[in-house]
Amino acid sequence: MRIATLGISHETNTFSLVPAEYDKFVEVELLRGDEIFERHAESNYTIAGYVEASRDLGFELVPLMFARTGPIGTITKDAYDRISGEMLGMLRDQGPWDAVLIANHGAAVSEEFPDMDAEFARAIREIVGPDIPVGITLDMHSNISKELIERTTACVVWRTNPHLDTRIRGRKTADLIYRTAKGEIKPVQWIETPPVLVNIVRQFTGEEPMKGLVDDALAANDRPGILDTSVAEGYPYADVEEMGMSFIAISDDDLEAAKSASLWMAARAWEQRVELNVPVPSVVEALTMAEERYVGPKPDGVTNFVPDDGSALSAPIADSDHSHLGPIVLMDVGDNIGAGSSADSTFILAQAKQMGVKGLLLSLYDPEAVEACVAAGTGGKVTLEVGGKTDNMHGEPVLVTGKVRAVSDGDFEETRPIHGGYRYFSAGTCIRLDTTDGHTILLTGRRSGNTSREQMYHIGIWPESYRVVVAKGVVSPRPAYQPIAAEVILVNTPGVTTADLDTFTYERRRIPLYPFEEAEYDAKP
Questions:
Q1: What are the backbone angles phi and psi of residue 88, rounded to the nearest 5°?
Q2: pLDDT tens digits for 123-155?
Q3: CA proximity to 326, closest of 373, 294, 362
Q4: Distance CA 90, CA 85 (A)
Q5: Distance separating the N- and C-terminal Cα atoms of the chain
Q6: For residues 343 and 451, is the Cβ–Cβ distance under 8 A?
Q7: Strands 468-471, 440-444: parallel, antiparallel or unpaired by DSSP?
Q8: Which residues does residue 63 pair with via DSSP β-bridges, in sequence order?
Q9: What distance in Å separates the CA atoms of residue 373 and residue 441, rounded to the nearest whole number?
Q10: Secondary structure letter of residue 145 according to DSSP
C-alpha cells in the first residue's frame, strides 16, 4: 500500500503587514522527499505520527513535499502557485496512490484563496479522484469550512493547546486512513460551526472553560460508532468567513451519529460563550502584580513540575516548598509570535523601564540592532534603539545601553516537550545584551517564538534567575516556561494579536458572531 504525504502549513494573520512570500518558506522549511523524514520523523510533529503508523502498520509512506513558515501575513499568489504547483505535480506524476495524508495547519489564507486549505484539498481530490481516502491533520487554531470536510475522508484536529499531542493526532489520522483503504471502516464526517469564537486568552486547554470542552470531545468520542471527535478553537486573526469555533465528529458509516455528537459538543460550547471571552490584565496591572508577587529565584534543579509527556500542563501546578519561587512569566498577548505578530513589541519593556522594574528578560526581533552588536563584538558596549521597527502597532523603539555578552548563530535543538512538536530551530544571528538598568534582551536576526528554553540556554541565558520573563505568546510558551515559573500572567498588550478584537476591521467574517454581536444558536443533538 502506497500513501503519499504532503502539506502547506501556515497560520495566516490577515492583519499582519509581513506577506508570506516564497522566500519565507524557503527560509523556514521547504522540504522535498526524504528531507521531510530527516527533519520530522523523530520529532513530535504530525508527520512523525504518519511515519510511526507506516512502520507499525506496514504501508509505504511516500514523502512528496512539505512547506512551512512562521505565522505572518497573507500568502502571496506567487508563493501559493509555486509551492502548490510543485506539490500537486509530484502527486500527479508519482501515483497511483492508495491514500493521501495531508499535514496542513488549517488557518491558511492566500491572496487568491481565503480558504486555502479547502482549495488545496480540492486540488488533491481532483487528482486522486473521489474514492481514494484523503486524511488531514490540523492545528487546534484552524478555521475549518464545510468545504474542507466535504473534500476529505477524515479531518482530525489536535486536542491540546499548547500543542503537545501533534504526533498522537497525526497517528490517529493515519490509522483511520489506513483502515479505510483496507476496507475495514467507512468514515463519514459532520462539522458544526456555532456563531461563537473563543478569545485567544481563553484557549489554554489546561484550564476552564477549554478544558471542559476538550473533555466533552473525549466523552463524545466514546459514543457507539464514533471514530474520532475534534474541537477547533479557531484563529481570530484571519478575516475569513469560517473564522470561529468548529466541532467535528467522524463515525463509521453513520452520519446521524456523527451529526448528533458534533451538535452536542457545539451546544456545550455555546453555553460557555461568555466564559470563553473574559479579559486579562493590562501592562501596568501585570507589571504591578509581578513586582508584588515575586519572591526569589528558583534553585537549580527545582521545577514546579516536569511535563515529560505534556500531561502535567493539563493539571494545576503542584504545591511544594518551592512552588512560589522562580520568575513571574508575563505572556505578551499582543506580540504573540505564534499567531503572526512582529516579535519586536516594546510595550512591556518601555513600561518596565518607566516603573523601575528590574530583572526583566525578553526577546526582540531586530536585525538592525543585531548587526550593530556584531560590529561591537563580544564585550563591546553599545547604545542603540531596540524593537518597534516592523510597523506602527507594537510600540516605539526603546533606547538602551548595555554590554554584548554573547553572540551565536541562533541554531538550537529542543528535545523537551514543546508546542507544535518541532525539534530544530534557527533564530538567525542572536545577541545576548545585558543593559545597564538591569535587563537582558535576546536580540534575534529572525522572528523566533519563545516556545523553547533552549532558545535562551544556547546563548548562556538562564531564565530561572530573572525576576520577570516576557514570553511573546499566549499558550505556546507554556511548555517551556510554566515548569520554571512561580506564576504565569497573561498581559493584554496592543498589537496585531491583541485580545481586543474590536480594534480590527473585519470584512469577511460571518455575522452575527459572538462576542462581536449577540447571536442565537439552537443546537438540537
A1: -65, -30
A2: 999 999 999 999 999 999 999 999 999 999 999
A3: 294
A4: 9
A5: 38
A6: no
A7: unpaired
A8: 5
A9: 12
A10: -
DSSP state of 24: H
- Run of H or E residues at 522: none
Distance (Å, whole) CA 468 – CA 294: 8
Q: Is residue 49 a contact partner of residue 172, using CB atoms and an 8 Å limit?
A: yes
* CATH code reported for the domain at 2-277: 3.40.50.2300
Query: Which residue type occupies 230?
Result: S
Which residue pairs, CB below 8 angstroms and at least 24 apart, start in 500-506? 501/197, 501/199, 501/236, 504/15, 504/237, 504/239, 506/239, 506/243
Do 192 and 215 touch, CB atoms closer than 8 A? no
Helices (runs of H) and strands (runs of E) counted in the chain:
14, 19
> Alpha-carbon distance 497 to 7, whole Å?
25
Q: Which amino acid would we find at residue 410?
A: G
Burial of 436 (0-12, 13-18, 19+ CB in 10 A): exposed
In this structure, the strands spanning 187-192 and 226-232 are: unpaired
From the CA atom positions of the chain, what is the Rg in Å?
23
512 and 195 in contact (C-beta within 8 Å)?
Answer: yes
Q: Does the CA dihedral 127-154-99-36 come out positive or negative?
A: positive
Q: What is the pTM of this model?
A: 0.86
> CA 417, CA 306: separation in Å to the nearest integer?
9
Judged by phi (left if over 0) then psi (alpha if -120 to 50, else beta), residue 436 lies in alpha
CB contact set of 477 (below 8 Å; sequence gap of 6+): 162, 329, 331, 419, 449, 450, 451, 471
97 vs 64: CA distance, rounded Å: 12
The Cα 48–Cα 35 span in angstroms is 13
Dist CA 130 CA 122 (whole Å): 10
Which pLDDT does position 319 carry in this prediction?
33
Q: In the structure, what pLDDT confidence band is assigned to residue 317 with cuts at 50, 70 and 90?
A: very low
Joined grid coordinates for residue 68: 512551512
- For the chain, the structural domain boundaries read 2-277, 283-498
- How far is the CA of 246 from the CAs of 50, 112, 198, 265, 311, in angstroms? 24, 24, 11, 9, 24
3-state DSSP call for residue 489?
A: strand
Task: Tally Cβ neighbours within 10 Å of residue 375.
Answer: 10
Helical segments of 151-282, H only: 166-181, 210-221, 255-270
DSSP string across 322-372:
TTT-SPEEEEEGGG-GGGT--S---HHHHHHHHHT--SEEEEEE-HHHHHH
pLDDT (tens digit, 9 = 90+) per residue, 248-289? Answer: 999 999 999 999 999 999 999 999 999 999 999 999 999 999
Q: Give 391-423 as a DSSP string.
A: -SSS---EEEEEEEEEEE--EEE--S--GGG--
